[in-house]
Amino acid sequence: MSDLSSVVPWLTGALVCVLSMVLGWRQRGGASVSLLMALLKALGLSVLSIFVASWLHTICIDPLHLCRSRGDGNITYALAPVLGLPLYALLILLASPAGRKPLTAAPDPHPLAIQKALLQHRDGQPVSATCPTCRDAIEVLHERIGSQPMQLHTRCRCGRCNARFRRTT
User: I need a labelling partner for 128 at 20 to 30 A (CA). Which of 31, 68, 141, 149 fits?
Assistant: First the structure.
């Protein structure tokens, strides 16, 4: 009869590692997981691992007949996964939204196109800047509304480069 009792703690530890990553991954929102919360969750997983390892060892002994019973010494196989507590906490932190790298959005090119058009207008050059979306030439218009100071208005066909600026010079 072979004795696979030494496999039980490794199997339990692997199962609890997967479970801790799932717990971290399912963390709600972008809120960061504090170290204390990760440790508390890892502690709960460690306690759970005692019961899982005991259950797996019992299945290995009775129905499968692949492990030997060592009486009260069987609990030693259940305590090994408890030592993985720091690993479980680390996995929770790494799998949480705070541990994942955020995807960075590409910068909006429209403000740069507007700035280029305004600089060309200010320097007295014909405006050749185009809207990145509709590829329409950006128009720069002077506008005075009532008694307000002169304003510059930029616009394009799609409206993404439409903006108003107070003229300072």
Answer: 149
